[in-house]
Amino acid sequence: MSEPTTSDLVDVQIDGVWHQFPKGTRIIEACRQVGVEVPHYCYHPKLSSPGNCRMCLVQMGTPPRTAPGAEPTAPDETGHLPISWSPRPIIACANTVSPNLGIRTKGDLVDDCRKGVLEFLLANHPLDCPICDKAGECGLQEYSMEHGVGQSTFRERKVKKPKNVDVGPRIRLDDERCIMCSRCIRFVDEIVDDPVLGFTDRGSYTTLMVYPGRELANNYSLNTVDICPVGALTSNDFRFQMRVWFMRETKTIDTNCATGCNITVYARENKIYRVMPRRNNEVNSDWMPDSHRLSFHWIDGEDRLSDPMLKAEGGFRTANWIEVIKAAAKRLSGLSGDQIAIVASARMTNEELYVVSKLAKQLGSELLATVPRQGEPDGYLISADRNPNTNGARLILGEKAVSGGLDRVKSAIQQGQIKALLVFQEDLIADTGLDGVSLKKLDFLLVAHSCANETTAIADIAVPAACWAEVSGTMINGTGRLQRLNKALEGPGQTLPVWEIARDLLRALGSDDNCQSVTEIFRHLADDVAEFKGVAWGQIGDQGMPLIETGEIIPLLERERERKAAGIIVG
Amino acid sequence: MSLEIPPDLEALIDESITHYPVSKRSAVLPVLHHLQTHFRYLSSEIIEWAAAKLELEPIHILEVVTFYPGFRQEAPGKFHIRVCRTLSCAMAGSHELLASLCEKTGIDRKNVSHHHPIAVSPDGKFSIEFVECLASCGSAPVCMVEDDLYERVKDADEVLKSYF
Amino acid sequence: MSEITYKSGYEPHAREHRVIFRNVDRVGWDTSIDTALADGAYEQLRKALTMEPAAVTDEVKKAGLRGRGGAGFPAGVKWGFIPKGNTKPVYLICNADESEPGTFKDRYILHQDPHQLLEGMIISCFATGVHLAYIYIREEFPMAAKIVEKAIAEAHEKGFLGKNILDSGFDLEIYVHRGAGAYICGEETGLIESLEGKRAYPRIKPPYFPAAMGLYLCPTIVNNVETLCHVKHILEIGGEEWAKTGTKNNTGTRILCVSGDVQKPGYFEIEVGKLTLGEVINDMCGGMKPGRTLKAVIPGGSSSKVLRADETFTIGRGDDAKQISIWDIPMDFDSLAACGSMAGSGGVIVIDDSRSISWILNNINNFYAHESCGQCTPCREGSLWMKKITDRLVTGQASPSDIPRLDKVARSIEGRTICAFGEACSWPTEAFIEKFRDELVGDTRPELEGAVVNPETRIANAGLK
C-alpha cells in the first residue's frame, strides 16, 4: 500500500489541536492515533459498525456555511477556518473525518452524553460485579468509574432476563448483564459464518439468545467472550477460576499450528489460567480457535516430567543433570556419526533447533528429522501444518530433515544401522508409527520431552524439557513470518529448555560452545543461516516480522482485507 | 409430530417469495403472515419450517417473530380481538371497552404481561389483546376482530353480536 | 370482511380543499379500476411517459412538495440525492406504515383510492428510474393490503404496470409488503431492514442514507402515501401552478387528522397554512364538547410537542413577527415549528380540561416504551424508564423529584439515538413537563421522597459509597 499523498490528508482539530489524517479515517481511530481514547462498546475495528451503544458520542464542528452571495470566511493564521460547534453529538465510530472538522471528546455535552448512556446501561444491569468474572476488565465497570454519575437514580423494578444460560459447550450467558452491543452476533455472522446468535423480543426486553436446540459451538466461539465488553458471555473454562487483576500477562504465540496465532498468556503462581488472542493483522487478526486456546491444561498436568531419569533395575531412577549429561556423553562417544540419528521437533523454537543442529554436527550425524503433522485446514486460521515451526526447521536443520527425514530415520532404525537415537520433544511411538520393538534395537535412546509418554518409557535416559510456555525464542510461521515466544512460566522441577539440554550435551562431548541465552543463540543463528542474515532480536518485536516468502495465505485474513477494502470494517 | 403444510398454503408462500427477486430473506414477513393466517400462531416447528424454506437459521426467524407484535407464539381464540390502547382511543374509552369485552367473553387478563400479551376465553372462542395504535384515531375507540375494524364502539355487544 | 371505512356520501367540510381526498367518501365511488379510469385515472401517467424523467422531477421540485410522513422534507430534493453516475438498481418504497398515533389519513387513501396512489407511484418510479417498488402497508390494514393488491393486478392487466408500460419501454413491478405491527417501521431505514426480512433496526446515517445505500444497499426512495399521491396532481397542473395552493414554502394541500376531545373528530384536507388551529377545532370539528374548554393540543402526531391552550406564540420573523394565541396558529410546517412544535404527520389530538396530564403523558410513554426497537441504548432503556416513572405517577407512587428525573431521562435520549424515535419518545415528556410542571408535581407525593423502589439499586448505591 502506498503512503497517502498530501491531497488525501485532511486537517482535523481534536480537543483543540490540529492533526492530519487520511480521508475516510473513522473519527474514533483518528482520536486513538493521537492518543485520545473515545470510550465505546459496540464498535470493534474488525466488525461492522451498527453504532448502537452511543457511548462514543463526541461533539463535532464544521466550518461556518457561507450564505449565497456572502464573502467566505477567511482562514486564521494557521490556515484553518473557524469551527461552529454542533449542539447535536455524533458517534465517533462510524463517522469519518472531513476537511476542517472539529472534534471535542471533552466538555459538558460529551460528559453529559457519557453519563447518560452509562446511567441507562446500568439501569437494568444487575450490578453483580462481586461475582462476575469480567470484573477488573469490564467496560461497564471501567467507564462508570471514569465517566459515570457515581450513583444511580433509577428507582424502578429492573427487567428480569435469563441467567446462567448454556449457549454452547464452552460458554455461558447472563442476559441481565448483556448491554446489547451485538458484537458477538456480528462476530458469528461476519467472521465465522455460524449465525446462531440473535436478539429476540425488543425494546428494553431485548434478549440475546441461541435458537433452542442450537449451540454456539463453532471452534471460534470463545472469541465472543473476549469481545463481550461486559460479563454477559463467560468462558466455562475460566469461570470463577481467577480474578483478572491477579494474573500476569505474557505476550507469546500459539504453537498448535503453523499460523502461530499471537496470544497473551495469563498466569498466576506459575499456572496458566487462560490464553487470549492478541491482535496481529498479519497473522490472526484478533481471533484464535478454541481448540488452540484451551490446549494449555496439560502444562500443569500429572504426566509432566520434572526430573532427569536414568534407566535402572526395574525401571527408572531420578537423577540430576550433571549425572545424566555425563551418562549420555559416555554412551555417545565412540559411536560414529552414521550410527546416530536425531529426531527434533518442528514444535521447537529456532534457537532450540539451532543448538540441536550444532549437536548433530558435533556428533557427525547427518540423519536428522522432524515429525510432520498434517491436518485439515479449517479455512479460517488453522493451517494444514500443525507444526508451528516447520519453516524454522527447514531453514535450520535443512530441507532433508523436514521432507522424508523421518522415513529415513525409521528405516535406518529398522535396518539396525542406528545405535543411538536422540529425540527432542516428540513421542515417536504415539506420533510416528515407530514401535517399541524397533526402538529396542537401539543401543541408546535419549528422549527430552515435557511429558512422560510411551517413548520416554522405553528410553535409556528421559529428561524434562520446557514446553512452549516455558521458553523464549522464535519461530517462523506458515506465511514466513518470524515471531517471538516469551517465557510465561517456569518448568516443573529440574526442567530445562531444549537448547540448554543440547548445549550441555555439546559441552560434555567436547565442544566449547557455551551459549548462555536465547538472544545469544539468535545472534549466532543470524550469522550462520542465510535467511536470518542481518536480523536482530530486538527487531522482531511483539508483532513479528516477515522473514521469507512462502506463498501461503491465511483465509480469514484474506476475507478481512476484502471487508476492509469495501469500507465495512476498519481492519 | 411433523408439520403438515397444505399444498395451497405452500403455493401461496412460494408465490410471495417471487416478489423478492433480489433476496429471499425479504420474504420472511410475508411467509410468516401466510403461516400465521393458516396456523393461527407461530410454533417453533413453523419457525423452523420457515427457516428451512428461506434458507436461514431458525434464530433469524425467531428474531423477527419476537420483534413484531403482529406475530404470535401462543394460540389465540377462534376470534382474536385487538383493542386499541393508544391515546385517542384511550381518551374515547378503550380501557372501558376492553374491560367490557373481557367481561362479556369471560376473559381474565390477570396473567397478561409483556411476554404474554394475549388472554383467551375459557371456551377458546375469543382472545383479547390490548394493542398500540390501529390508526383510526378519528373514529375512536376502535377494535379489530380478526381483520374487521369496529369504529366508535360504544358497547361491547356491538362488536360481539355477530360472533356469538 | 366488512366494509370498514367507506362512508359514501359523507360531505366534505365547506372549507376543505380536496385533492388527495377528492374521491374519499364520494357518492358512486369504488376502488375498481373502471371507476378510476372513468374519472381520468392514469392520464397523468400517460403524460409523464412522454416526458423526460428529469423533467418530472423538476415539476416536483418546482411544486415544493414537502413530505407528508412527518419530517416535511422536500420530495424532489430527496429524489435528487440518488448519487450521480449510479449504476446500481434504484428502488422506491411507499411508506404506508402510518403509525404515528393521531394519524389516520393514509388509511382512507389505501382503502378508497388505491389507483391514485399507484398512479403517483408509477410516475415517481419513472422519474427516478425505478423498476421494482414496494408498498409497505402496516399489518393493521389487512383489508387495505387486499384492496391495493387487487388494484395492482388491475393496473397490470391494463398495461400500467409490468413490462413496457403503455409502450413506453418503461418496466415496473410493484408489490405490497405487509408489516407486522411495529411502529418503528415508519422510520425509513427501519422499514428497509424490515423489507429485507429482519428486525426493523434503523440504520446509522451516515453512511446508510437510503437515497445512496438503502434497500439491498442500493439507492432507495422512501415516500409517504400522501406524498406520492400528490405527484400525480403536480403533473396534472404543473409544479408552479400546484405551488399556488397553500402558502409559500408550505405548498399544496394536506390532510389533517383530528382526534380527541372535539365534537366531530375526523379528517380534513386543507390548503397548507390557510386555516388556523382554532378554525380547525371550531369550524371543522364542531368545537369543544359541551361545557368543556381547551387545555392543550398535540398538533402533529403524538410525538410532537404539546401546545398549552393559554400560551402565547411568536410566528414570523423581523417586521412580520407577531404574537398569537393557540387558536390563531396557521396549520403549516413553518408556523408550527415557530411555535416550538411540528406539523409532523398531520395528526391533531385535542385535549380538554377534563383530562389529567399525568394520565395523557403516561399513555404516550407506554406507547413509546412498547415501540422502542431496543437497538440503541438511550432509547431502549430511557423509553421504558420514562414509562415506569409515569406509571408510578398515575398510581400515586411518585415523589416530586421524579418530575425532574423524568425530564433528565428524556433529555438524555433526545439527539443521542440512531433514529428520530429518540426525539419522538422524549419530546412529549419534555414538553408536558415544561408546560404542565405544576400539574404533574401536583400528582406526586412528597412523603415518598427518598424511598428507593428497587432493591438492586439500594444495594448498588450502598456498594458505590
Summarize the structure.
The complex is a heterotrimer of chains A (571), B (164) and C (465). With 164 residues, chain B is an alpha+beta fold.
Write the layout of secondary structure elements.
The complex is a heterotrimer of chains A (571), B (164) and C (465).
Chain A: E1 9-14, E2 17-22, H1 27-33, E3 57-62, E4 84-85, E5 90-91, E6 101-104, H2 108-123, H3 139-147, E7 165-168, E8 171-173, H4 183-190, E9 197-200, E10 207-210, H5 222-227, E11 233-235, E12 248-253, E13 262-268, E14 271-277, H6 290-293, E15 309-312, E16 315-318, H7 321-332, E17 340-344, H8 350-363, E18 367-370, H9 390-397, H10 399-402, H11 405-414, E19 420-424, H12 428-431, H13 436-439, E20 444-449, H14 454-457, E21 461-464, E22 473-476, E23 481-485, H15 498-508, H16 518-528, H17 537-540, E24 545-546, H18 555-565
Parallel strand pairs in A: 1-6, 17-18, 17-19, 19-20, 20-21
Antiparallel strand pairs in A: 1-2, 3-4, 3-5, 3-6, 7-8, 8-11, 9-10, 12-13, 13-14, 15-16, 15-21, 22-23, 23-24
Helix pairs in contact in A: 2-3, 7-15, 8-9, 8-15, 8-16
Chain B: H1 7-17, H2 28-39, H3 44-53, H4 58-67, E1 79-84, H5 87-91, H6 94-105, E2 119-120, E3 126-131, E4 143-145, E5 148-150, H7 156-160
Parallel strand pairs in B: 1-3
Antiparallel strand pairs in B: 1-4, 2-3, 4-5
Helix pairs in contact in B: 1-2, 3-4
Chain C: H1 33-38, H2 43-49, H3 53-63, H4 75-79, E1 90-96, H5 105-112, H6 114-128, E2 130-137, H7 142-157, E3 173-178, H8 188-195, H9 210-213, E4 220-224, H10 225-237, H11 239-242, E5 246-247, E6 250-251, E7 253-260, E8 266-271, H12 277-284, E9 294-298, E10 307-308, E11 312-315, E12 322-325, H13 333-338, E13 347-352, H14 357-371, H15 377-394, H16 402-413, H17 421-442, H18 455-464
Parallel strand pairs in C: 1-2, 1-4, 2-3, 7-13
Antiparallel strand pairs in C: 5-6, 7-8, 9-10, 9-13, 11-12
Explain how this protein is built.
The complex is a heterotrimer of chains A (571), B (164) and C (465). Chain A is α+β, with helices and mostly antiparallel strands. Chain A is built from 18 helices and 24 strands. In chain A, the strands form six sheets. Chain A has a seven-stranded mixed beta sheet, with helices on both faces. The longest helix of chain A has 16 residues. In chain A, 51% of the residues are buried. The model of chain A has no long low-confidence stretch (mean pLDDT 95). With 164 residues, chain B is an alpha+beta fold. Chain B has two domains: 61 residues, Arc Repressor Mutant, subunit A (Orthogonal Bundle), CATH 1.10.10; 82 residues, Glutaredoxin (3-Layer(aba) Sandwich), CATH 3.40.30. Chain B has seven helices and five strands. Chain B is elongated. The mean pLDDT of chain B is 96. Chain C has three domains: 212 residues, Rossmann fold, CATH 3.40.50; 106 residues, Roll (Ubiquitin-like (UB roll)), CATH 3.10.20; 92 residues, Up-down Bundle (de novo design (two linked rop proteins)), CATH 1.20.1440.230. Helices cover 40% and strands 14% of the residues of chain C. In chain C, strand 11 and strand 12 form a beta hairpin. In chain C, helix 2 runs parallel beside helix 6, helix 2 crosses helix 10 and helix 5 packs across helix 7. The longest helix of chain C has 22 residues. Chain C is globular, with a radius of gyration of 23 Å. Chain C starts with 32 loop residues before the first helix and ends with a helix. The model of chain C has no long low-confidence stretch (mean pLDDT 94). Chains in contact: A-B, A-C, B-C. At the B-C interface, helix 2, helix 4 and helix 5 of B face strand 3, strand 7, strand 13 and helix 14 of C.
